[in-house]
Amino acid sequence: MTKKERYEYVIRYFEEHAPDAETELIYDNPYQLLVAVILSAQCTDKRVNMTTPAIFEKYPTVQDLSTATVEELFPLIKSISYPNNKTKHLIGMAKMVTEEYNGEIPKTVPELIKLPGVGRKTANVITSVIDHQPNMAVDTHVFRVSARIGLTTNAKTVLQAEKQLVQNFPADKIHIAHHWLILHGRYVCIARNPKCGICGIRPACKYYQKITKPA
User: Fold this and answer.
1) % the chain with pLDDT above 90
2) Record-annotated residues binding [4Fe-4S] cluster (predicted)?
3) 199 among the known binding-site residues?
4) Among all residues, which ones are annotated catalytic?
5) Is there a binding annotation on residue 43?
6) Which pTM does this prediction carry?
7) Residue 11 neighbours by CB under 8 Å, 6+ apart
C-alpha cells in the first residue's frame, strides 16, 4: 500500500466512523477554549472539564481574568498539573489579550504563540477548532498514532510530524484529522498494548502488519 493509498483508507474509515469528531474539552467561546487548552497541557481533558466551570464562573471574560491575582486564581486550578506555571500563564495571557488585542482572542498562529502559555501546538488547536484553519496540532497521541499507522515516516520531532501530516491530508480535512488521530490514540491505539483487535485501521496500518508478519 502506498502512502497515498494509506491516507485515503484512513480518511474513508474515519469519515464513516467518526464524521463528527471534535475536541472533548467543554467550551462556549474562543476565550474559554484557550483557557481550557492551556490547562490541558500534560493533563487529561476530563480533569480540565472538572476545573474550568469555576474559573469561568468567577472570570466570565478575558478582561475579568486579566484582573485576577495569583492568590485568587491558583486555588481554582491547583488540581491541574503544573498549577503554578499555568496560573501565571493564564493571567499573563489575559492581560496581553486585553491590552494588545482589545480583548479579542487572536485568530492566527503567529499572534497566538506570542501569548504566555501558548506554544505552536496550542495555537494550532485554537485555529483549527475555532474556524477550521488547516493547522495540525501534534500531541503525544497524534505523534504516536501517525507513526504507527505509517502516515508519517521517520519523523523525529512533532514539527516534522506536523509538516508531513499537513502535506498529505487534504487541506479541508486537516482540522478534523487532528481529532481523528487524538481520539484514536486515546481510546484504541493506546501507548501500551494498543487495541488492534478492535481497530478498523488494521488493513492500512504498518504497525499491525509488522506484529502479525510471520517469523
Assistant:
1) 95
2) 189, 196, 199, 205
3) yes
4) 121, 139
5) no
6) 0.90
7) 169, 170, 173, 177
